């Protein structure tokens, strides 16, 4: 049986801003509909019908991986990779709740809608 992981484990020994940033991210994502948090060993998946985003915690930031139908070019995108003809993942580093802005919300909305197809 695989080891169980909890959301709380991901925030142990992390700056308080990491948890606050995650909570801001959840508030935005839940505007679009039901969101389930699925804690894994190294990240927390945010799931609608399927996973639309992954959140990896670091000591003082989050690494948000977002599902996309297209490649995304933006100064905030740390990494973007094509997984198949119509599927991309891109990473954004979030250091405070203020980083969860309209741009991040738009990316999350697109990813959420993509996961519900």
Structure description:
The protein has helices at residues 16-29, 102-115, and strands at residues 36-39, 44-47, 51-57, 62-68, 77-84, 87-94. The chain has one domain (8-115): Alpha-Beta Complex (Aspartate Aminotransferase, domain 1), CATH 3.90.1150. Strands 1-2-3-4-6-5 form a six-stranded antiparallel beta sheet. Strand 5 and strand 6 (87-94) form a beta hairpin. It has two helices and six strands. By secondary structure, the chain is of the alpha+beta class. The longest helix is centred in the N-terminal third of the chain and has 14 residues, at 16-29. The N and C termini lie far apart (31 Å).
Specify Rg, calculated over alpha carbons: 14 Å
Estimate the helix proportion, in percent. Answer: 10-25%
Please state the overall shape, judged from the principal axes of the Cα atoms. Answer: globular
Give the averaged pLDDT, no decimals: 95
Unreliable stretches covering 5 or more consecutive residues: none
CATH C-level label: Alpha Beta
Keywords:
117 residues, alpha+beta, Aspartate Aminotransferase, domain 1, 6-stranded antiparallel sheet, 2 helices
